[in-house]
Amino acid sequence: MTLAAKLEDFELTLEHLLMDVFMTEGRRCQVHLLDDRKLELLVQPKLLAKELLDLVASHFNLKEKEYFGIAFTDETGHLNWLQLDRRVLEHDFPKKSGPVVLYFCVRFYIESISYLKDNATIELFFLNAKSCIYKELIDVDSEVVFELASYILQEAKGDFSSNEVVRSDLKKLPALPTQALKEHPSLAYCEDRVIEHYKKLNGQTRGQAIVNYMSIVESLPTYGVHYYAVKDKQGIPWWLGLSYKGIFQYDYHDKVKPRKIFQWRQLENLYFREKKFSVEVHDPRRASVTRRTFGHSGIAVHTWYACPALIKSIWAMAISQHQFYLDRKQSKSKIHAARSLSEIAIDLTETGTLKTSKLANMGSKGKIISGSSGSLLSSGRQRPAGGMPP
Hints:
Radius of gyration: 24 Å
CATH class of the largest domain: Alpha Beta
CATH topology of the largest domain: Ubiquitin-like (UB roll)
Strand content: 15-25%
Low-confidence stretches: 17-23, 288-295, 356-367, 369-390
Number of domains: 3
CATH superfamily of the largest domain: Phosphatidylinositol 3-kinase Catalytic Subunit, Chain A, domain 1
CATH architecture of the largest domain: Roll
Structural class: alpha+beta
Number of strands: 13
Number of helices: 11
Mean pLDDT: 84
Order of helices and strands: HEEHEEEHHHHHHEEEEEEHEHHE
Distance between the termini: 60 Å
């Protein structure tokens, strides 16, 4: 064996030994943040998901943490959200080598950013919306994509300067999803459409661009909906959509117009067992019949099927979304009056320079931020989020 081969073998052995040590003390995780940075840390066995969320939120000075969550992509391709009252390492992560990949993003959406108190929260909702559009998680007509791309340019670069600069910027910014490009003859055509919109925005401030972008996105039917692929008893595929509004059932080829709508206020119970997820909803039409015949209140049961891991994930998401609905309903009287969008635009413009300088100090985009494992040790627990038992 050559000296180089011996050295390589020694390095591999050392790496495996170090990995064994790490695994006894915790597990390496990589949290992808909404501004493209990555937070690399060693998660201790006792660390709660709530404490990990607190740590991530601290990197944005985020006060309104209740809208956000941390998720991983499970083996079915769906986002599986960490339960805040559970330890991070108790979740069923995919069996893969290397660090566990986690994503920090918006979990609970609301009607409008005007109900958000803090500018940092609005900035993150904006980053989250951009990411969802770019990753094609939201259905958007290509012409709307071009308009949205113009607002991304206005927010990031200011007023239009030249066609050449815009074309260069569009190649660097997450503005044009692949599907929109496929629907048109060429990239140049798509860029020209964006430029047409962009020129009309001359004079808009950064804050106005963000507010206008979010106003368009919030009007899209698929914004704020978490979709899950399921089947009915006959094996016909459907999408279940969970949001702050309720549980919607969609045709598999149409995520826009729901076939069935179950609002949270109608919900009586929800539960899962193995491959089955069921909801019990109050049905007034059914009630009028059952009262006359059997004397029971009108409850209709709707059931969908998927693999056990996905069913459990859907149930956990439904529980948390229902609790979010109840919390908001209970605190409606305490909710501050919505800010005007013009006021928000002014605030975002004024804080934009400060935010940019702060992020520059923390590290450029794509940079890995090391987390201190010592600060992650904790035995504290949080009261579990409310909801209906299985």
